[in-house]
Amino acid sequence: MLGGLISIVFYDVITLYFQIDNEDDLRKRGFSKEGKHQNPQIVLGLLVSIDGYPLAFDIFEGNKFEGHTMLPVIDSFKRKYDLANLIIIVDS
Question: Alpha helices, DSSP H only, in the chain?
């Protein structure tokens, strides 16, 4: 579908917190860059093109370590579009 036009992608992780007290199966307390450790949150892994267009995403439990989110998103994207090689740029 993408015709091999995608070779460089950017990956980032965002946490989104909720103004509630109760956790559920997805909304969990975890590390928050914004200091909202007391709030349940979700973790969003986002893959974008070199032009900034969103290509893929996945939502993870709020207590999931960011470092464990990239490979599932990348692997799923590569399988879906039959891509062998990608250059992936991430921040620390």
Answer: 70-80
